[in-house]
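hi! just following up on the protien thing from before. the input was this:
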Amino acid sequence: MEAFSEHIQSILKTLPDTPGVYRYYDADNNLLYVGKAKNLKKRVLSYFMKEHDTHRLRIMVKKIADIKTIKVNTEMDALILENNLIKSLTPKYNIQLRDDKTYPWIVIKNEMFPRVFQTRQLKKDGAEYFGPYPSVTTMYILLDLIRQLYPLRSCTLDLTVENIEKKKFKACLEFQIGRCKAPCIANQSLEDYDKGIAHIREIIKGDINFAIRDLKRLMNERAEKLEFEKAGELKKKIELLEKYQGKSTIVHPSITDTDVFTIISDEKVAYVNYFKVMNGTIIQAQTLEFKKKLDESDEEMLVFAINEIRTRYNSLSKEIFVPFEPEFVFTNAKYVVPKIGDKKHLMDLGFRNVESYKKEREKQLALIDPDRHTDRIMQQMMKDLRMKEEPRRIEGFDNSNIQGDYAVSAMPVFIDGKPAKKEYRHYNVKTVVGPDDFATMEEVITRRYSRVIEEGLPMPQLIVIDGGKGQLGAAVMSLRKLGLMGRVTVIGIAKRLEEIYFPGDPIPLYLDKRSETLKIIQQIRDEAHRFGITHHRNKRSRETFKTELSEIKGISDKTAQKLLTELKSVKGIKEATLQELAAIIGNSKANLVYEFFKKQGEDLM
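and the predicted 3d structure came back as:
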């Protein structure tokens, strides 16, 4: 791997462990190869981690200058997308695949008591078509599951209400062997049949929960009526559905000639994902970065990206799927903001890809240019927390005590968003009696920043207090007395809902749970808690041990501490031999300790 460029190495280190499609490009941005993978990271790494047998493959790998990936939900989706991209883009090193027309579809006919079956002919007959299925085996597994769950008719009889009422038909062998409930002789109502079709539709699209919920409701109703045999049959159906792992985002054929755009952005860059959908399948997919120049809004960046990408690909699609509707209107095209169904699933897939791309780029940036990565995070934190300067140094505070005893406070320090453990400090509370968290916070903040002022130590740009309004108010009181309010930003973070509190503002700030700013604040809070609990536990242990050891005449605190350091606990001291004690504190003191615990043991007998 070391033989490849830093750019390639950084991409390989940040590949996702998900199904998807990968594309290799040469130095001139010519597409070399398109491939699919159940696990993108493992598959792509395999090209660069071993010696290849064929000369053609070795040549291709040497030419790779860039790698781009598209995440999908399942390996089957990756196969469909790979097939479409190979046919539309004709990469140099790919074997051309067969036409989509050779792939089968599942069809739900537009008729009374609809039939469900596989077909290779996509017709405009009002029926619903799902697919295509590159894996015929997968399609037959799905059809077999449907037939086990819902007995359906396979005949071509004209099952109108009038024909059924006139008793024109007779039940066939399919009814006798349990594959059909014979709606032809009014043995099954249209309402009951259509409920099954509704379940089938959702199962094919990947939403098995819809069917499971309905079947569980029916099963409970049957059980309440003591119809245990019917309840048992429904339970078997539920178990079949729960075992079925074929969830997949298959684009519906009704979505045709459409451009799909999704966008997320940060302070400096907008990331836009683009799908081109034709005849129900994605034939083009790309995620692009657009650098901001003048703090442009997402709406401005989205319009710019739509214009750029549609021009680049000469797209004349009359529908543009977008996450929100911009004011700017494109000639001969209309916006659609999907809310539910297949169109919304398509948008969700776009968002997953653009978020994944952004994370991968940030990881690459952190590896290649850590300073730039840090600068970006500091800028984001400054904006999120309404600060006037970047929080290059952050100090956090958390208190620990048991009903006021052994009260301590911990102060972790983060520099450039990372723990600086050599700078960590802990405080033994001196002036507070009893469990008064606010007074404890006031004392510790005063002690810390009095020393910072007196000794000219580095002043933090941000102070994080673990707690809500009360703890924050106590910290502010100390800072105000020291004349530091306005010179440093101080915030409190409450545990329950991760609210961020600012002095004098009763309304908390709620940051996005995925934001880097919140993650760093949470990490500081967690470090303060961990560091404080460790110090508190150690102090409590030392105090407890010293109380017992201090009862021994002739044994000083220093000697007691020496024994505790070597033997870890009072129990260890009690169990030590006279020789072991003497090796640590000498013969005379060892005799005192040994005889004390020996007598203590005899008194208990």
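The two ends are 70 Å apart (CA to CA).
The first strand starts at residue 20 and ends at 25.
cheers
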